[in-house]
Amino acid sequence: MMYNLAKLYYPITARPDGAGEFTPCKALQPYIRCFWGTTGGPDGQTRELTAQPDTLPGPLTTREMIIPDTCMDIIWEWDAATGEAGGIFCGINDTPFEVEASGMAEPRVRFAIRFHFWAVHLFADDHLKDVLNYSGEVDQYFRSFRRELGDRLPGTRTLGDRIAAAEHYLLRRLDQARMSNNGLMNAIHTILHHKGVVAASGLESSTGLSSRQLERLFREYIGISPKKTADLVRFQNVWLNLCHPSPHIRNVQDLVYAYGYSHQSHLNNSFKRYAGRTPLEALAYARQ
To answer: How many helices (H) and strands (E) are present in the chain, helices listed first?
Structure first.
C-alpha cells in the first residue's frame, strides 16, 4: 500500500464548510480525497451536494466558484427515470472559474469521485500528460469505468449504495494498478512535507533524480511540472491556513513569512492568480 500522503495534505474548495464531502474507507484514503453527489432529502426529493456548493434557497440556478484544489474528479450523472447515463473526467486545473450551479430540479442524479493528484495514474488507463484544465469524456482516461461502475450506478438507491459500489470498483482497480515510481513519490512527499515551499534543488536531492527526469515524471503521471505542483500545494496550504488559522499563523503577515513570499503584495498577487480573489475577498465568499 502507498504511504498515506493524505496525512500531510488536505486540499479544500472555495467553500469548504459546506462541500458535502464523504470520506472513503481507510484503504482508499491514501488515494481518494472524497466522494460527493446527490443524496435524498427529508422530503424524498433529490438535492445536490456539490464540490463547492453555492446553491442557496431560492433560484434553481446560481454561480459557484471553482478554485484549483489539485484534485481530479470523475463526475457521473444519470436520468433517474430512464437510467441514461454519462459523465466527465476533470483533470487538474490551475485557474479559477465560475460555473452555473443547478438546483437539480430535473430528475437527474450525480455521483463523483475525487482523486488526490498523486494517485490518479494508479486508476487511469493512460498517461496524464494532457489533463491540465481538461474536462471531457471519462472514457478518454478510464475506458472500463462505464462497464464496471457507471452503468451500475443508476440501479443504486442511496448515496451510501453508490459509495459502496465505487469503493468496490476502486479497490479492484488498485489491486491491478502498476506500482508507483519511487522517485516521483519521494518528490511529492517532499513537496507536501514542505507545504509547497521547496526549490528544484530540494526535489533533486530528495529523489536522486535530475530536474529533467522529474519534469518528465510529473508531466506523465500528474500532468503538470514539479514547480507548478509545488505552487498549487503552497496555494492550498495558504488557503487552509486562512480558513482555519493556527496559533502560529494568525494573520496575512504570518503567512508571508511561513510560505516564503517576499512581501504581502507578492502573496496577494499569487493567491489571486489561483483563487480569483484576494485572501480577504476569498474568505468573505467562503462565509456567505
So the answer is: 9, 8
